[in-house]
């Protein structure tokens, strides 16, 4: 089993894609949930039996192919970058269709505050294969001196699309689910030639866990080849230093050597240095090519020696569009869905995915019961200790109150005793008998003796 440890998540079978009539090989569909893994492990021990005749289920891939051609496909792409950085030109060049209006056709409103979210859709067809393409633009991003929290409206838009899809999945009647989730985000890096700016780092740090992040260096023809090589190295160093997970196509175990070589070539070009142009210019040999004419020569859009546009388009459209959609559905959306449900109080019961064993079930129930009893005992002990502490506190408080009252009464009695003693002394002094000398008559004027 092949595993991919990219983005910090172990994702089995990420490299395997359902492809019919393209490489001549039809891989086994990946099993993503525990129940299917259990069934797969059970059946892996049994030997595959060969049939004596043609039963007919080998034609099932043809049915899937025809249904896919009839229904068509959907792809939602978000582009983020400053105004005038070449977003509309690159998208129109990539799909060879006027998906985005030109800058002169867009009526801008002055004094626009913050970031806006706009979307444009188009139904395009390539060799009888229909694609409903939706491009989401973010005008206003990075256009101000203070760009704090400019990523917040974009992050909220991506998460709101996840929430809308989750709400549709949880409906009782799910006749037709509309999928508007962002499958990929192209982030346009300004060709400064130095390193990532603060706004670049902060934006990618907040987005890499929500969307397939594809960084591109726009207008790379403004840099020399030496400057571009050094700029790419510094960008990758910043991305690794800040642990930013960008989308990197995987090499599947079923890929043929040519496909493996193409994927390695794409990986070596990240971040893509691109040039976009809807104009055709004439080369010296007389051939008309898409590109830009300069006094010193012509930059060809579709020439791999001039820029990385062909590798970018090959990765997004030709070889890894299904991987982008699959990773969005099975990893990014599932992570968001899990966090959302957990925040709402939902808890998954994994016991339904395990084999039933009566003895093990009884043992597990016994352990759960013992743990419950121990928890109850601990709670009772805690309550008892609390009651004892409260009772001791009340007794101590009562004792202190009694002691205080006793002391107060003792002081009162002592005061009264002292007062009585003083009064007793006063009374004894006032009623004391007179001495004989005090009874001698006083001499007067009429005393004849």
From TrEMBL:
For this UniProt record, the keywords arranged alphabetically read as follows: Cell cycle, Cell division, Coiled coil, GTP-binding, Nucleotide-binding
Domain Septin-type G: residue ranges? 71-343
- Provide the species name: Smittium simulii
Belongs to which family?
Belongs to the TRAFAC class TrmE-Era-EngA-EngB-Septin-like GTPase superfamily. Septin GTPase family.
Do you know which Pfam families this protein is assigned to? Septin
Keyword Nuclease listed? The answer is: no
Q: List the protein's name.
A: Septin-type G domain-containing protein
Start and end residues of each stretch annotated as Disordered: 394-449
The protein's matches in Gene3D superfamilies, at most eight in alphabetical order, are given as: P-loop containing nucleotide triphosphate hydrolases
| Record-level GO BP terms | mitotic cytokinesis
Q: Which PANTHER family match?
A: SEPTIN
List compositional bias (Basic and acidic residues) regions by residue number. 394-427
User: Does this entry carry the keyword Cell inner membrane?
Assistant: no
What are the GO MF terms of this UniProt record? GTP binding
